[in-house]
C-alpha cells in the first residue's frame, strides 16, 4: 500500500560559510493515512529540517519526499504546521489568528463561515470566550492551544508539530496531549510530531522514529499498536516502561554514549522492516 | 487617567517655566544673557501674527519633509530588509551620508537650487530624517523570525501576502519608534535651512531677525515656539502609533 507520507533515501546538506553541512543522510519514514508518527533524536540532528522537507519549504538534495505517492515540490495547502513558539500575531485577536490560514487557502469561503470554523476549533480546545483576546493576554498553554487550532483550521491532511509542547510545564503539557488526542478524534489528520520527550512520543504516537546524530539517518522504528481510549495511566505500565527503556537506549546510541550492541535485534538494519520488541504482548 | 496623561505633563512644563524664571531672577541675568519666561510675553504680544505665519511655514515644510522621509525611508528599508545583498551594499552608503553634518549640506543645497526656498527646506528636513526610518524598517523586516514566514509560506502564500499580513504589521512598532526620532530631526533640518538661507521664511528666519536686531527675548520666544511645534507633532505621531500599533503596548501595572 502507498503511505500518505513516504520519505525514502533522503540526503540533505545546508550550505554554510564553512562549507556544506550534511544534516540528513539516509532518512526513511513512512506514515500511513491517519497515522501519528513521533520523531525523536539528539539535539541538532535535523528534525526540524525533516519537517521543512515534508512541508515543502525545502527540497532534499537526494531522495524523495512523497505525499499521496506524489513528489513534494513546494508548499501545499493540505499541510498544517505548529512550532514550539506559537508565533501568534500580536496585532490580531485569537479568533483572527486562527482564521489566518483560511484567508490564504480558502479565500472564497465566506467570512462568517471562516469565523464559525475558527470558533468551533477554539471551543474544542477549551478556548471559548477568549476569541477576542490578544495573544499577550493568554497563558503559554492557551497560546499553544490557539496555535494548534490555527494549524488545523484549514483541515490539512498532514499536521506537522515541531516540539509544540517543548516550552510548557509538565502539567500543561499533559493537558495538551489530551487536547491533541481529542482534536485528532474530531478532525482526522495524519500527524508528524517532533519531540524531545519520550513519554510524549509513546503516549501520542503509533510509531516512534529515532534519528541518529547528524548527519541523521533513521536509526530505529518502534510501532505502538493502539486500541481504545488512552489515559495518562498507560504511561505507568510495565509495557510503557519497557518501551521507554528501549527508546532511551536508542537515544544514547544516537548520541554516541552507548554502544549499539545491547539493544540486540531491536536495532533495525533495514529501516523499512520494523523491529517490534518481542518482549511486548 | 486623564490627570496622569494631561495633568502631569502640564504640571511639569509649568514647573520648568517657574524654575527658569527663578533662575534668571536669582542670578540677576540681563535678558541678553538669558531671557526669562516673563520677558517672552511681550515678544509674543508684539509679533503674534508673525509667529502664526512663520510657525505655519515651518510646520508644513517639516511635515512635507517628514512625509517624504517616510515614503523614501520605508522604500529603502524595504529593499534592505528583503535583500541581503542590497542591505550590504546600501548600508555603508547610508551611514556615510548620514554622518555628513547637515549644516555643511545646507549651503550646498541653497546654492544648487537658488531661490527654491520651500523646496530646499523640505529637502533638508527630508535628508536629515529618513535615516532612522530606513534603518528601523530594514531591521524590522530582516529580524522577522523564520517561523512567522513559514506559517504562511507552508500554505503557499506569496511573498506579497507574507509582507502585507505579517512583515509589515510586525515592523510597525519599530517604525513608529523611528518616526518619533525623525520628527525632531526634521525640525532641526527645517530650521537649519531657514536660519542659514537669506530671505528665509519660517521660525528660523524669525530667530535670525531677532539675532540681527539684538532682540533677545524674540530669539528665546522662537525657541519656545519651536519646542511647542515639536511637542505637537510628536503627539500626532503618538496618536497614530496608538491607532496603528497600539497592540504592541503591553498593559502595565
Ligand atoms: N538554514 C540553515 N542553514 C544552515 N544550517 C542550518 C540551517 N538550519 C539548520 N541548520 C543546521 O542544521 C542542523 C540541523 O538543524 P535542525 O534545526 O533540523 O535540527 P533539530 O533536530 O530540529 O534541532 P533541535 O533539536 O535543536 O530542534 C543544525 O546543526 C543546524 O545548525
Ligand atoms: Mg528543531
Automatic annotation (TrEMBL), chain A:
Keywords: ATP-binding, Hydrolase, Nucleotide-binding, Transport. Residues 263-281 have a biased composition (Basic and acidic residues). The keyword ATP-binding applies. Residues 254-281 are annotated as: Disordered. Belongs to the ABC transporter superfamily. Residues 2-238 form the ABC transporter domain. This is Bicarbonate transport ATP-binding protein CmpD. It comes from Palleronia abyssalis. One of its GO terms (molecular function) is ATP binding. Its EC number is 3.6.3.-. SUPFAM superfamilies: P-loop containing nucleoside triphosphate hydrolases. It holds the Pfam family ABC_tran. PROSITE patterns: ABC_TRANSPORTER_1, ABC_TRANSPORTER_2. CDD domains: ABC_NrtD_SsuB_transporters (cd03293).
Automatic annotation (TrEMBL), chain B:
InterPro entries: MetI-like, MetI-like_sf. It holds the Pfam family BPD_transp_1. The chain crosses the membrane at residues 7-26, 59-81, 93-116, 122-144, 175-196, 216-240. GO terms for cellular component: plasma membrane. Residues 55-237 form the ABC transmembrane type-1 domain. It is a multi-pass membrane protein. Keywords: Cell membrane, Membrane, Transmembrane, Transmembrane helix, Transport. GO terms for biological process: transmembrane transport. PROSITE patterns: ABC_TM1. It is found in: Cell membrane. Its main location: membrane. Belongs to the binding-protein-dependent transport system permease family. This is Riboflavin transport system permease protein RibX.
